[in-house]
Structure formats: structure tokens, C-alpha cells
Amino acid sequence: MSETKLRQRPAAVLLTPAAEARIAALMAKAPEGAIGVKLSTPRRGCSGLAYSVDYISEANAFDERIETPGGLFFIDGASVLYLVGSTMDWVEDDFTAGFVFNNPNAKGSCGCGESFTV
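The structure assignment produced for this chain is given below.
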């Protein structure tokens, strides 16, 4: 009888070191009771879906959980299908700062970059 070995499934979203550092910074000043940061894709904007990153105080059993050096990062279970294979980065320049997503599932985005469609 052979033994079955389970291979760990890769995370739905790859976090760059800059994104992990930003998550650590967010968790360092998180409100009391926050257990992590969660990425979701609510329906919003002119293209249909938007990226939203928020503190959460409790985990949902259907959410994907990624342990980062600075704290827990969750991906909304209903959003995973829209995000599989994406890379999440944190970018700062003289005028803006924010999370940037390279999402191979996005078929288009609005002109301002706030929302996307799959």
C-alpha cells in the first residue's frame, strides 16, 4: 500500500516583499481586535469589480488564509476565482501610494484604474 502525500496548494495571490511589508505596517497600527487584513472584490466602479483591502476581526471558514511575516492576510472566498494567479504589490511614488494588482483574469479595466472586469 502506497502512502498518499498531499502537496500544499499555492496561494491564490502572490504577495511581493513590498506588499508583505505594507501588511506588516498595517497590522502594527491595526485597531484593537483586528486579526488580519482581507482582500475582496466587491461590485463597484464602472467596470464591475474593485479591489478592497480592509481589517477584519474574525476569519470566515471559506476565506483563503496566507501567513505573512507581519501578520495574517485573507482573501475573500467569493473573490478567489477572480484573483487566482494575481500578484499584489505596494507602490509609492511622489504622488500616490497604494496596492497594485497584476491580475491575469482581468479582461479590462476602467480608465481611472479603480475597477476591473473578468
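Interim note for the steering committee: The mean pLDDT is 86. The first helix runs from residue 17 to 28.
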